[in-house]
Design brief:
Layout: E1 6-11, H1 17-29, E2 33-38, H2 42-45, H3 48-55, H4 74-80, E3 83-89, H5 91-98, H6 105-111, E4 117-121, H7 125-129, H8 131-142, E5 146-147, E6 151-154, E7 160-164, H9 168-179, E8 188-193, E9 198-201, E10 204-206, H10 213-224, E11 228-233, E12 247-249, H11 253-264, E13 269-272, E14 279-281, E15 301-303, H12 307-313, E16 319-326, H13 330-340, E17 345-350, E18 362-363, E19 365-369, E20 374-376, E21 380-381, H14 382-400
Parallel strand pairs: 1-2, 1-3, 3-4, 4-5, 8-11, 8-13, 11-12, 13-16, 16-17
Antiparallel strand pairs: 6-7, 9-10, 14-15, 17-19, 18-21, 19-20
Helix pairs in contact: 1-3, 1-9, 4-6, 5-8, 10-14
This protein binds cytidine-5'-triphosphate.
Cytidine-5'-triphosphate binds at residues 253, 272, 274, 276, 278, 304, 306-308, 322-325, 337.
């Protein structure tokens, strides 16, 4: 998404200026062409050479001197840029831009820009909460400027509270979001992710190898594309760099079923990426099962509900997307599940292939639809796979052209 984008990174004079180097690194890793503009104060914290080395472009700071003999003037750069990110943004820069002051290169450029400008503020908590800053922030938001953070936590000044620069991952996610077409705006999507845990006794459970990565990627990309996403997930160790996705954590298949049912009426689209355990121990012991001498131990299992199949039986106007985790006869099994569960799409996944399936950041899938078409995707990141699945979902949404609310009975 950031590939070949021209981004101006404005760095102002706060202690978090050193974190801007990491932000720059993450942008260049995504193949953006970044032009760093530093204020005089920022140079007291970090050397321009750091940013020049990381960006591969000259660092700009002085309005008149550095541009002499250069084809790039502040207006030219403002013209070619696709986005300006000011990180860290001090109280001073917010105040200047909110009040139309253009007394250095960065403020002058911002004034000449028609593209989005994103502020990532960082300052002492009392400064952030002061009415000067809050009024300026409100004014800037009203002008259409965007904000990420500040976050809460320990501050460099020794105090605690809101004022930390947002996490770099969150800033990057916000930038990606700004560049993403909102083709799922107005859609409510329920995504399930991860494994379920079926308790055997108070210390043991049955589960599977799912880590939740595919579901998390789907939730993130759907939200980026403008959908209102709810994520129902089994236990996992993942974090989402977005605070706007409500997460409901469940343990067993039956808990997941209840959580899905509660959300079902309010959703247009359900994507079941969870690896729901098909069986659970018939009776969960109240106390720990003790080992026996010379003994084998037989565990009686009973079937869990098939959540997706139940949804398919009460489909109404919903769009249903399932996954088929297979180790053989991929297409036959996936096609059978597509029909049996009354789905619109199924993502067939041979989990034995290297780079595919559980625990990895990549996947190799085939997307099957109800007309018997199969789209085969090569090895790619789970985020890219998620995007392609969502492209298919967008096509289905366009076909259906439906809206909330609509009644449903279980
Ligand atoms: N699924 C579900 N409830 C279950 C089992 C699976 O909702 N009890 C959903 C999964 O989230 C997935 C799809 O059904 O989207 C297919 O899951 P998969 O494990 O591949 O297949 P199963 O239906 O469990 O069949 P089998 O284990 O025989 O392959």
């Amino acid at each position: 998404m950031l590939k070949n984008k021209e981004i101006i990174l404005g760095v102002t004079g706060g202690i978090a200026a050193y974190k801007a180097a990491e932000l720059l690194r993450e942008m260049t890793r995504r193949e953006a062409n970044v032009h760093v503009v530093m204020t005089q104060h920022a140079q007291q914290f970090v050397s321009p050479l750091t940013f020049q080395t990381l960006s591969g472009n000259p660092v700009l700071s002085e309005m008149f001197r550095l541009f002499m003999g250069s084809k790039i003037g502040h207006v030219t750069l403002a013209d070619i840029a696709n986005l300006t990110v000011i990180a860290p943004a001090t109280a001073n820069i917010l105040g200047k831009i909110a009040n139309g002051v253009a007394d250095d290169l960065l403020t002058t450029m911002v004034m000449a820009m028609k593209v989005p400008v994103l502020f990532a503020p960082s300052m002492n908590v009392n400064m952030w909460e002061s009415s000067f800053v809050q009024n300026n922030v409100e004014r800037l938001k009203a002008y259409g400027y965007q904000f990420i953070g500040p976050a809460e936590g320990d501050l460099a000044c020794g105090s605690e509270g809101r004022g930390r620069l947002a996490d770099i991952a969150e800033i990057i996610e916000k930038i990606e979001d700004i560049f993403t077409k909102k083709d799922l705006q107005g859609q409510r999507i329920l995504v399930t992710a991860g494994p379920t845990l079926e308790p055997v006794d108070p210390v043991r459970y049955i589960t599977n190898r799912s880590t939740g990565k595919m579901g998390f990627a789907l939730a993130k990309m759907a939200c980026r594309r403008g959908a209102m996403v709810t994520l129902i997930t089994g236990p996992n160790y993942l974090s989402l760099p977005r605070s706007d996705i409500p997460q409901i954590v469940v343990h067993s298949a039956r808990e997941m079923r209840e959580a899905v049912r509660e959300q079902y009426d309010d959703c247009h689209i359900i994507i079941m990426a969870a690896a729901v355990a098909d069986f659970r121990p018939q009776d969960t012991r109240g106390g720990k099962i003790k080992k026996r001498e010379n003994g084998t131990y037989a565990l009686e299992l009973e079937k869990n509900p098939d959540i997706l199949k139940e949804l398919g039986e009460n489909k109404g106007d919903h769009i249903l997307v399932g996954f088929a985790a297979e180790t053989s006869e991929l297409m036959e099994n996936a096609e059978a599940k597509l029909k049996e569960k009354n789905l619109d799409l199924i993502i067939a996944n041979d989990v034995t292939q290297p780079g595919a399936g559980f625990g990895v950041d990549t996947n190799i899938v085939k997307i099957l639809d109800t007309r018997g078409r199969a789209r085969k995707l090569p090895l790619m990141t789970k985020e890219d796979v998620a995007d392609i699945i969502l492209d298919q979902v967008v096509k289905l949404v366009k076909k259906k052209e439906k809206g909330l609310p609509w009644p449903r009975n279980w």
